[in-house]
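Teaching assistant here, posting this on the class forum so everyone can see the example we discussed in section. The complex has two components, and the goal was to see what a joint structure prediction looks like when all of them are supplied at once.
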Amino acid sequence: MEKLERAMPWLFITGLLVLWEAAAVGFKVPVFILPRPSVVAQSLISQWWPILENSWVTLYRTMVGFAIAVVAGALLGIAIGSSRLIYRGLYPVLIGFNSVPKVAVVPVFVIWFGTGAVPAILTAFLVSFFPIAVNVATGLATVEPELLDVLRSLGARKRQILIKIGLPRSLPYFFASLKIAITLAFVGTIISETVAGSAGIGYLMMAATANFDTPLVFAGLFVTAILGIVMYAIFAVAEQRMTFWAKRGDGLMV
Amino acid sequence: MRPFVEISDVSLMYPGAGASETLALEHATLAIDKGEFVAVVGPSGCGKSTLLKLVSGLHAPTKGGVIVAGHEVAGPIKIVGMAFQNPIMLPWRTTLDNVLLPLEIVEPHASRFRSNRKNYEAKARALLAAVGLDGFADSYPWQLSGGMQQRASLCRALIHEPDLLLLDEPFGALDAFTREELWAVLRDLWTAQQFTVVLVTHDLTEAVYLADHVHVCSKRPGRIISSRKVDLPHPRDKYSADFVALVRELHNGIAEVRAA
């Protein structure tokens, strides 16, 4: 049973690919509309160098943007979650900010910073810091009042309460948000690269589209998905290690 | 001699819009001597827990004043230990680290906590052993049963050797056997260390088993309407005729309050 559980993701992906391959062959779908997985794989192998080079660029930009988002998001979340005044003042602004489609902001960044790495990093940061800030703030704001009473009755100061209770208590929220934020950061980088890039997976896919090289576009999509899954997995493991106390069951409702 | 805790003519109004404003306490007066074990009993919602929050300084009275150890209570006071109906352990800390928590906050322990950690740990382990938790210090609280967590919570309330122990129905959620075991644990700790205890409870047997004085609270808005000295010798037998008679007397008193 446990073996089957481990094999499930692989079984599922293989099944999906086989189904896709069969459907593409069966319905005679032209390659430039929807390439079969085997054709995408060929493209991945034959163009491995440009794909690797551009993946590295995208990964690097994503990680930088994400790192800034983690620091800024966590600090902002702590500020919002621990002060009513800051919450009142900042929260509406943040929501407004987050509602702006980031695609629309990229051209502005290009005017300011050119088409290099900066717009991509900034976009990755912008789309990924919000869930971190909101989650950390939620973690702090939902600390049980009884927990606070325990410390307050000892005469603890606000800062002590934050360090002893608030931060550890919001750690599970923080890590949950990292898993979301890292995948969003990829979206941000690639949006920026497709709109105005000179390198990166997004740029590669745009260039391939212009050449009607659909298999290469799909190769780019595959690589992005794999990068996303790997990063997600890394943060899922980190979450498990840091917040094992918050998850005692297997996390399933049924 | 001046009482250790003086609650004089205290009223407390919980703020709220219009009718949701509640008067929890009105003209409550109570004096507790140093080293005394006092129980406050009364119908639910009579402001018993509010009384504890006033003494600990978590709430300020709307009218009247509270004096503890000669000082007017103006904010949280550091000579108290508190335990509540829920054990309220921090799930990310081991039981030992939970018990050590007050020492990281309360001076003079906090500033020498790092350098003295070994001694403090030994002290916490000894206390845990005294309540029957030896061998569980390094477990996480969620690995313990409710009764064990409540024992640990008692240790946390006592680790910094407070002069005043405030207990808010700490045994209310436990099964009868565990509860009575913990009565004995608490009685022994109190006999050994002679701190002052205020125990809020709705269990009359518990009150009579442990306390020197049982104070009866009226229904809301609460005030102390009668006090009864318990002069049965320890350890008390809850099936003895005197004990049962005393519980019945208190029971009838509260029944009258509820009917009034």
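For the discussion questions: The interface with chain B takes residues 144, 146-147, 149-156, 160, 164-165, 168-169, 171, 243, 245-246, 248 of chain A (CB under 8 Å). The domain at 39-242 of chain A is CATH 1.10.3720.10 (MetI-like fold). Think about how each of these relates to the inputs above.
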